[in-house]
Write a structure and sequence with these properties.
Monomer and homodimer. It is a single chain. With 330 residues, this protein is α/β, with parallel strands linked by helices. 29% of the residues lie in helices and 17% in strands. A 12-stranded mixed beta sheet has the order 7-8-9-6-5-4-3-2-1-10-11-12.
Amino acid sequence: MDNPQLLDNHGRELTYLRLAVTDRCNLRCTYCMPAEGIKYMPERELLSWEEMFRLTRILHEMGIKKVRITGGEPFVRNGLLDFLTNLAGLKDLEICLTTNGVFIGEYIEALKKLGIRHINLSLDSLDRDRFHQITRRDDFAKVYANLLRLIDAGFQVKINAVVMQGKNEDDILALTEFAREHPVSVRFIEEMPFNGSGLVEEKLFWNHARILERIRSQFPDLKARPFLFGETANTYDIPGFKGNVGIIAAFTRTFCGSCNRIRLTAKGQVKTCLYDDGVFDMKPYLRSEVSDEEVKAQFLTLFKSRPLDGFEAENKRKGVITESMTTIGG
């Protein structure tokens, strides 16, 4: 088999892999998992670094142009830097990282040497107490210092902030204001039902429309940017700002029509949509000594029956959403 281009059954070209390298995290964010954490998978039950590299290489041959390394928190798994070094050897592959920012400081120079420039940093509040309440950890000073270091080092930084009623509404304007003097992209995200509790909110208070209304109340001159295929955020420029802001309708799911993503969890589950419960277990398949050609054929088959959007995917689940975001990779 040659290198077929990955297309889904709706004609959408797949060019973006979100690869979770661990389900472990050092924080306990309220929207992601319970205070006591979750039952983590033993490392032997996760994909090995070699298996993840093989899958990334195969998908790159099929047209994947961008890979985002997620978790959990990627930096808690030993061997990450060696893995990133191997990925950097794949020609014309853009490598991005999503992190909570606690541990990244010691890796900044190494990431620069590898040519990795795109960092998404999860930061739901600029207030230390609110940060502590949301993450259940007192690590704000480390995260904020590392954020400033990344900006100063020339990284293209996106700040991801989940907006939650009664917890961090005040940070909508505070984080927007942060983009005035810093060349960052602030992304406000609707809260999703992946908190490990099995409880799903039927109606979301802080939806994308209300978040935009709050921003516009203080910054009425914000101007919408064009929405490009494959993007999840509606983005806006504000006159005089070095950075920009955006809103991701992750619960409302307004962007599904241009989804170009493949998701692969740390234990090897292929997800054709964030809201499905996994469509194929890649780990035992790889360990049955299949060829690269067979893996490519399997991916092609999986995406021939992809849901049109997140609502269809959720309706096809075997039960209600009970998993934690840290097991999915976002």
